[in-house]
Amino acid sequence: xxxxxxxxxxxxKVARDDESGFWIGSCTPLQLAxxxxxxxxxxxxxxxxxxxxxxxxxxxxxxxxxxxxxxADAKVFGATKAPREHVRLDVALGAIQRVGSPAELxxx
Length: 108
Fold this sequence. Notes:
It contains 2 helices and 7 strands.
């Protein structure tokens, strides 16, 4: 089993929808969106979506280019060319910033 640690800075913006009570979030740099019925569910979903996103990039061979596109402060420890089933990715989530309303989330 290979282990890869990716250190990046990217932010998720989140807000609670007053009508439904759901938490929603968007990550513009990765063009991802998530929702959860509770704060804890949203954070877990963000983690799962982010992990899947980077695993998919590893599988299709675009991980190196993706990491470079996210900024000079990105750091990768471990091999970026191993089969998905043999890699454990540790992706540290960037800041989760709460905004006032879902309307303030940028479209992804």
